[in-house]
């Protein structure tokens, strides 16, 4: 039951409407029908590429959702996390917390960008591709469909030095996570819904939770049977850095509310997940989402809509990159 599959990881519906400017949007105005005339087949092309990649590599959904979140939480949703480092610039990819981002996500965005460029050269931003691909993958794996307004541009800057402090680490305390999200105007319920959604289909490298299971003292908040299974999965993690385990031990490939039920039973892989059940500010939300999957889906969808417009770039603030991993100025 607790034997984890081992993962080797490498590195609009509805009526068109305008999302008016808000503090999170840097005075931007995105629309659901932004590409209706400029690139009418954008979403169809992207969906085809996304479905094919997910079928080929089922960890793509989790990988892409994580890349999207790591992008948006550092300077806004502007595809800055996709930029490869150069001899002259350490980009966000160089930050240690981003070293574990899986290659399937970057491969998907590169494939999608290539396909879309053939149809509509120079029109669709990498940040729009990443936002919509993430939404589609959530839906493909069983999660809720939500609107993604379009028209965001790709950032002109990507620096490793901007990452630290904007993303919670795997051993983060409840206080740390709440403060990180609050600084970006996200509430505690939004935080819990986003973490639950990101980790219901997510996976983590063994090094991110090894101290909980190998000691010197085993974390008492983790289920002993889970410890047993994880020790087998991660036995060689010091020599094989790619070893990973799914964060939802029951239904790792399905977007559902099972993660919250797991936390109630001490089955949280990451300390930062399990603390959501032990902290009095977040435990009621864990219990709520464990009992009511629709409430979780609704809250996650609303939170993701909010994330997707956080700090987006428009006008002279950004560009449409020719390649998603290289700034046009390079």
UniProtKB/TrEMBL annotation:
What does the entry list as the binding residues for heme b? 199
Q: Which UniProt keywords apply?
A: Calcium, Disulfide bond, Glycoprotein, Heme, Hydrogen peroxide, Iron, Metal-binding, Oxidoreductase, Peroxidase, Secreted
Site entry (Transition state stabilizer), positions: 66
Q: Localized where?
A: Secreted
Indicate where this protein is primarily found. Answer: secreted
This protein's source sits in the domain of life called: Eukaryota
Q: Which Pfam families match?
A: peroxidase
Q: Name one GO cellular component term.
A: extracellular region
Binding site residues for Ca(2+) 2: 200, 248, 256
Q: How is the cofactor bound?
A: Binds 1 heme b (iron(II)-protoporphyrin IX) group per subunit. Binds 2 calcium ions per subunit.
Q: What is its EC number?
A: 1.11.1.7
Q: Could you tell me the Gene Ontology terms of the biological process aspect for this record?
A: hydrogen peroxide catabolic process; response to oxidative stress
Q: Which cofactor does it need?
A: heme b; Ca(2+)
List the InterPro entries hit by this protein, alphabetically. Answer: Haem_peroxidase, Haem_peroxidase_sf, Peroxidase_pln, Peroxidases_AS, Secretory_peroxidase
| GO terms of molecular function | heme binding; lactoperoxidase activity; metal ion binding
**Active-site residues, Swiss-Prot/TrEMBL:** 70
Reaction catalyzed: 2 a phenolic donor + H2O2 = 2 a phenolic radical donor + 2 H2O
Q: Which residues bind Ca(2+) 1?
A: 71, 74, 76, 78, 80, 92
| Domain spans labelled Plant heme peroxidase family profile | 29-328
Q: Does the keyword Oxidoreductase apply?
A: yes
Which cysteine-cysteine pairs are annotated as disulfide bonds in the entry? 39-120, 72-77, 126-324, 206-234
Q: What class of enzyme is it?
A: oxidoreductase
Q: Name the PROSITE patterns on file.
A: PEROXIDASE_2 (PS00436), PEROXIDASE_4 (PS50873)
User: What's this protein's function?
Assistant: Removal of H(2)O(2), oxidation of toxic reductants, biosynthesis and degradation of lignin, suberization, auxin catabolism, response to environmental stresses such as wounding, pathogen attack and oxidative stress. These functions might be dependent on each isozyme/isoform in each plant tissue.
Q: Which family does it belong to?
A: Belongs to the peroxidase family. Classical plant (class III) peroxidase subfamily.
Q: What is the name attached to this protein's record?
A: Peroxidase
- What organism does the UniProt record list as the source? Coffea arabica
User: Which gene name does the record give?
Assistant: LOC113739066
